[in-house]
User: Fold these one by one.
Assistant:
Number 1:
Amino acid sequence: MSKATITVLPGDGVGPEVTAQALKVLRAVEEKCGHSFTVHKRRVGLDALAAEGVAISESTFETCAQSDAILFGAVGSLPAGEDRSGGPRPEQALFRLRKEFGFFANLRPVRPFEALYGASSLKPEHLKGADMIFVRELSAGLYYGRLESVPGKPSEIRRTQQGTEAVDTLLYTEEEIERVVRAAFEIALDRERKVTSVDKANVLSSSVLWREVVERVAADHPTVTYEHMLVDACAMRLIRTPSDFDVIVTENLFGDILTDEASMLTGSIGMLPSASLGTRRTAGGMFGLYEPIHGSAPDIAGQDKANPVGAILSAALLLRHSLGLAQEASAVEEAVEAAIREGYRTPDLDEDGRTVVGTEEMGRRILDRLRQP
Ligand code: IPM
Ligand code: MG
């Protein structure tokens, strides 16, 4: 039996709908396997800005800090016409959590289910054998100083005498590169032992340093094969021959963009989960933040249309990485695949001859499979 504390941050848009389904799955695992999960639900993003005046309050941050894991929904998308230029943005909550908890490695597994080949924009023959995991650097690079002006890392719009200009800073220390690249090589040891490091070394200094560090880390892992790939070439290879990839490690913004692209292999961005990890240990594994890679999707929020699979698979990653419950995690993943194999689909995966269901019912179908002995 395992005891754990989980903070749930549903957030904005479809966030509350999909995390509700993921939480039901965690409760079902708790009941079936005799574990004991204490759950704290808190506000984040626009929801917190409206109710508490900040994207994430100190007390919510503290609750997260005291937990074994954070289950996160989505934040963002200001209502149309609302101008908050210069004011606090909902995404700041996410950047703060990632930065202050040191979540530098963002794992995004991409494995298209065979039953969904028809829902992908790619021909099925290109999807065969595709099974990869992205290790996206998450706490440095172009995203920071988004938080606030970090000296030496400006991210701002400046009015000068010559006119208006804007700057963002892509800064990486050797240490920031090395820890995420090491994480990727270690993950590769448990997979096909192949790392693709993605950069733009023909243009960017940060990528030249990135390559140097990869060479050094690779030398410590003689059983792992590795390659360097330019990010533009990678974007192409991902949809030409996705089965070429095993572990892909890359800079923050490149990882953000490439994973939205890769999600199309699975049929929908609603399918992909993620785990953000650092170095802090819990009783069963690592402290982490778990979220689907999709956003708050305000256009479909509150309509029971969102795909809960990305959130549910994120809960599976939470079980595996933060609570050390690998069998339970696999059971959740198998339940998801079974429900899809049986033909249930949310509207984002609509195909002829399938049963289109809402967020709630999709969650219920997955729960049914999970509860089967
Ligand atoms: C993601 C999202 C976020 C990011 C947004 C919401 C700031 O796109 O997790 O991929 O860019 O990191
Ligand atoms: Mg993204």
Note: The first helix runs from residue 15 to 33.
Number 2:
Amino acid sequence: MTGRRGIVPPASHAVSRTYAGRPGKTKAESPVITGLMNVLASGSVSAVLPSILVANRGEIALRVFRTARRLGMRCIAVYSEADRDAPFVRFADEAHHIGPAAARESYLLGDRIIAVAKASGAACIHPGYGFLSENADFADACKAAGIVFVGPPASAIRAMGLKDAAKALAEKASVPVVPGYHGSNQDVAFLKGEADKIGYPVLIKAVAGGGGKGMKRVEGAAEFADALESAQREARNSFGDARVLVEKYVLSPRHVEIQVFGDSYGNVVHLFERDCSLQRRHQKVIEEAPAPGMTAEVRAAMGNAAVEAAKAVGYVGAGTVEFIADGRDGLRADRFYFMEMNTRLQVEHPVTETITGLDLVELQLHVAAGGKLPFTQGDLAICGHAVEARLYAEDPERGFLPSTGKLWALHLPEGEGIRVDAGVEEGGEVTPFYDPMIAKIIASGATRIEALDRLAAALGDTIVAGPKTNTRFLKKLCEAEGFRAGQFDTSFIDRHAEALGAAALPVDQAAVAAGAILLLEEQAQAAPRTGWTDDPWAMADGFALSPQPSVPTPVTADGETITLRTRWSSDGVSVDLGGEPHQEREVTLVMADEGVIVVADGRQSWVRLVDPLSVDLEGGDAAGGSSVKAPMHGKLIALFVKPGDRVEKGQRLAIVEAMKMEHVLTAPRDGVVSEAVGEPGAQVAQGARIVSIGDAG
Ligand code: ADP
């Protein structure tokens, strides 16, 4: 524990190097922060809640722990098999294994998590986002077990849990909702009649929906029945509840949400808006605060509506009321509509923390410990601008397919106005079991443009080698003219997909060449001149005293074979790029399994050498047969034959990995295997005999 308590920006994060952030006012100047510091100065949170269990993983678990530890709480982690070595597990004071990788056998097992909480004496459970965070039964079960659930009362979660009931509730609280039908009649003809009345385009939404599933836009009456069927099917499969609602599709839609906060004394305030209009498949990609084009009048109207919606369900803690705004004429006080309320902390909460100077997790814990909100609406003010980008392990060039695997290199940005919330580290792994988010990068500045410029620069400094990422795509978004000018709605990404690089792109030959050069030079250095062929001129390393003519050198880049023309001289190897103008470029080369990962301009390729000599080793041995030897010192990857096997000339016998390259050893002639030595995984010395082949019979 360090000396000073109080609301400070969440200190340092997992792999974050710095948190320099808030422009404008300093902590000491803000009456809000001074007030909260006084409240918390007594150490009241940890006196009431001495320990916390986070029923979550990754960056959010770490994020919550950092604040909890600062407040003097004991941190308890639960983890699945896949997260055994994760940073949040190491960070915690104690950690408990709760099951296999699959979430439904670990992070979604409320009973098991509560049992761990009881056994470890956890005073409270923070659910993070996703998993059990909006599960009212889990909130009830915590309470029944005598553990504080860091979130709203179960009744508020239930009331806002289904989109239809939530809309009805909002309507009752005089909060504007999107015109449409959210009743119980699910008859096709009836729903179509309602859609006709609303006027196309309409949006069909699963009432139990989330994550954009079960949502279909319908352009006209003729498409309605098919779209309904497909939405219902998706809803049934995803949520076990096929019910839908139908509403007007808002044109030029902007997603603007309001962060609300309540305490258990009936006080509710809002912490301003976040604009999350940059979306892909209805999922947020970039979030910012304040919303471009927001006026004091619209902010007050939206803020009040959000506070009313929260009050209507007796809300306590952190929540978000999402609105859809018709952005055709900018943001207007009479053109925004309630969509739903998320009864938890959101992924994008850091942008609100950045512009308000508050630590929302600290506030959550304060309220959960029975504290009153230490400020009123009038105390709150916005400082500067903040933008968050979600760095994902996915491949924009291949339809944003999730990408997994080891993080061979991970360099996250740092610098003035940059905050990074991450849950992974270099050497760790992005697994297929959970959301493939690598980190959230949050940039702030005195103005929106300054924040966007910082974010673009930060993304330029980001290096991820291993899984494919959306780094380049995010950077291009920050640089996109329309977005920078504040002219965008939720279809901005779809409209500009190609310009943003979300399309198949040609191989970056120069980058691949840089990788190939490294591999060739490494190979040359490591392979002694008296190589395994005994013929220096046949060697792949190409050491020579005078410049050699260029030779075709096959390599693979992400599995695609490319033939480069390489040339050796006394200076080393160079690649002839066929007249491509030479450019100074920053390229990062990361040695990885059997190859090198080349990262250039936020794109990466995995480059491997292809053995130019088809390994066809022949050599007499004492028995008068033929022996196949390891071409270099390396590792036996596979052995395909055993003594007694009949083989044909050219047949694959074994694979040896050496010099980041797989060497396939093939049979030099027909015959019968007389000897096959070594277990896969074993080290083999250069020249070691692996397989011997004798005559049949
Ligand atoms: P989910 O809970 O599945 O994420 P939401 O109701 O939060 O679904 O909507 C997700 C996104 O879909 C919104 O951010 C917005 O971009 C779009 N959307 C939702 N309702 C409408 C509407 N009536 N008109 C236009 N777009 C909408």
Note: Residues 642 and 676 are 6 Å apart (CA to CA).
